[in-house]
Specification:
The protein is mostly beta strands. It is about 5% helix and about 40% strand. The chain has helices at about 10-20, 210-220, 370-375, 400-405, 430, 540; strands at about 35, 75-80, 85-90, 105-110, 115-120, 140-145, 150-160, 185-195, 200-210, 225, 235-240, 240-245, 250-255, 260-265, 270-275, 285-290, 295-300, 305-310, 315-320, 365, 365-370, 380-390, 410-420, 435-440, 445-455, 460-465, 470-475, 480-485, 490-495, 510, 515-520, 525-530, 535. Strands 3-4-5-6-10 form a 5-stranded mixed sheet. A hairpin with a 5-residue loop joins strand 18 (about 305-310) and strand 19. The radius of gyration is 24 Å and the shape is globular.
């Protein structure tokens, strides 16, 4: 077991951990082209499933990458048996603190097919190794499904994150004789009619039950699902394309391009809990993220972040991302008092929506502090929000439920990205860039760090694989950057994932926290793997077996 960097281990607990072989060093292994990584002898593979924060790997503060710096991640690629891969999901995000960990699975899909792979440790028997074994990731096809010829997949997600209660009730049908264990996986798939034709949009859920798992262990033949059979639950109620699936420990969220969000209770057979329109403007929602108590919605053109309570979706806060709130024409606003947070003019408030009276909240202006206050804004103007990201940690923004019910605002960090233009440039196409802002939530939302991260529009952001980051951003040209955000945004690594220009898709990036890895698909048959280096083994050495024995 290896611990790198800062960790919440007290001095009293450090010595017993050292006696178990824990290494508290922050040394990094040197990387070479074609290398792959295995942990030291006796360590759990790739950093291992780590049961609690005390032994969970933490990333040390990073420095800007220079000529002699070691890269934070090593990039490798695996060829999938699925072309034009657009969607990606991984489970579990976290392992339970007690009991056996859940099986690691990776789901990949294009518009027609879904493949669910079992991600095995490469230190297992090489005789059963599947795709990617030489790259340090052993993928074995376990389930597959193809939608009907008149449908197209618009999103996939696993129904578990790993922080669900072990005692929660099973959410399969009551008449099902093969109820799943809490550590089984469910796969959520959203689909729509081809060419955006009129008609209902569906979300269907399949489960990896114990019976199919045992059959696969015996035969190594993948289980075949179909769109019309084998699923556990079918969810309806959307008439526009479902572009976002989100998850919390108890609820599934489905959001469509018309701005409607539905909340489904996982503990009650995915019964509908709430349905509400988050934004009345078509395609007005740029991105959505969630935590235990709140749902965060980024408005593409109104440049605001709305915070909704979970699961009832009551609007509790609206924050403008504009760093220089405009004044009403001819009506200068009165400056706020020092004791109250800055507020935007009433003219910027969103129009009423159902229920009309309770959902209108005057927006707050985010306050610039620290590095953000010193950032040279000049003639830059924010014109669009594109992504929003909550830290991946299961403790992100955690506070007592009673406090939230009594009106406590959301807390913690929020990463907001958008597109800026130089208003003095005569060629807007050449002046477009992407900005990343680090917000701190609370009664007075503040932006304490801001940076121009790309010269092209962002198409993807992700967080992880650690509780404390880093943040990964990718633009439409395929340039991917890794950012440390404490105390300010600093680029610690730059990668090129070579996007396929003809596919016109955005990369899908997911984290594998227990194994210190991140994965991405980019619209072709490649699975891109970013992994922290532990111990370097040459590719030619791996062909002759595991040198660790």
């Amino acid at each position: 077991m290896v611990l790198r960097g800062m960790c919440c281990v007290s001095r009293e607990k450090e010595e017993p951990l050292r006696s178990q072989g824990v290494d508290f060093s922050i040394a990094r292994a040197k990387t070479h082209p074609g290398d792959r990584y295995v942990p030291p002898a006796g360590a759990a593979p790739w950093g291992g499933p780590q049961p609690c924060c005390a032994v969970r790997e933490k990333e040390p503060p990073s420095q800007p990458v220079g000529v002699d710096e070691k890269p934070l991640f090593c990039q490798t690629e695996v060829e999938l048996d699925l072309d034009r891969a657009l969607f990606l999901s991984f489970t579990p995000m976290w392992h339970p603190s007690e009991g056996q960990p859940a099986k690691r699975r990776l789901a990949v899909a294009n518009e027609r097919k879904l493949h669910v792979y079992q991600a095995r440790d490469t230190r297992a028997s090489l005789a059963t190794a599947g795709m990617g074994a030489a790259a340090g990731l052993d993928l074995v096809l376990e389930y597959c499904m193809e939608v009907d010829s008149d449908l197209a997949i618009t999103g996939i997600m696993f129904g578990e994150r790993g922080d669900e209660s072990e005692s929660r009730s099973s959410y399969v049908a009551k008449d099902d004789k093969h109820k799943q264990s809490p550590k089984s996986s469910t796969v959520v798939v959203a689909a729509e009619p081809l060419r955006h034709a009129a008609g209902p949009r569906f979300v269907r859920i399949w489960r990896c039950d114990r019976r199919s798992e045992l059959a696969f262990e015996k035969t190594q033949v993948p289980t075949m699902w179909t769109w019309q059979s084998g699923y556990t639950v079918s969810l309806d109620g959307h008439v526009a394309r479902i572009f976002k699936l989100e998850l919390s420990s108890h609820y599934l969220f489905t959001i469509d391009v018309a701005g409607w969000c539905q909340v489904w209770d996982k503990n009650k057979t995915y019964s509908r809990r709430t349905r509400r329109q988050l934004d009345p403007e078509p395609d007005g929602i740029a991105d959505v993220t969630t935590d235990r108590h709140f749902l965060y919605c980024a408005g593409r053109r109104d440049l605001s972040v709305k915070v909704w309570s979970v699961p009832d979706l009551q609007l509790v806060m609206r924050v403008s991302a504009q760093w220089e709130p405009p004044s009403s024409v001819g009506q200068p606003t009165e400056p706020p008092s020092p004791s109250s947070p800055p507020r935007l003019p009433h003219s910027l408030a969103s129009p009423p929506q159902s229920p009309p009276a309770s959902c209108v909240i005057e927006p707050l202006a985010v306050r610039l502090e620290g590095a953000a206050a010193a950032f040279p804004l000049g003639s830059l103007q924010l014109v669009e929000l594109v992504h929003i990201q909550r830290p991946m940690s299961r403790w992100s923004g955690v506070q007592a439920s009673e406090k939230v019910r009594n009106g406590a605002p959301p807390k913690g960090m929020l990463f907001v990205s958008g597109i800026v233009v130089d208003t003095t440039s005569k060629s807007p196409a050449r002046s477009t860039a992407s900005v990343l802002m680090v917000w701190s939530l609370g009664k007075t939302p503040t932006c304490h760090s801001m940076e121009i991260v790309h010269d092209a529009p962002l198409v993807a952001t992700s967080y992880g694989p650690y509780d404390n980051g880093p943040v990964v951003t990718a633009d439409r040209s395929g340039i991917t950057k890794v950012w440390d955000f404490s105390p300010s945004l600093t680029c610690v690594q730059e990668l090129d994932i070579a996007l396929v220009a003809s596919c016109g898709c955005s990369p899908a990036i997911v984290s594998d926290p227990p194994y210190s890895s991140m994965y991405a698909v980019v619209g072709d048959d490649r699975l891109i793997i970013w992994r922290r280096p532990f111990h370097v083994v040459r590719a030619e050495e791996f062909r002759y077996g595991d040198p660790q024995g």
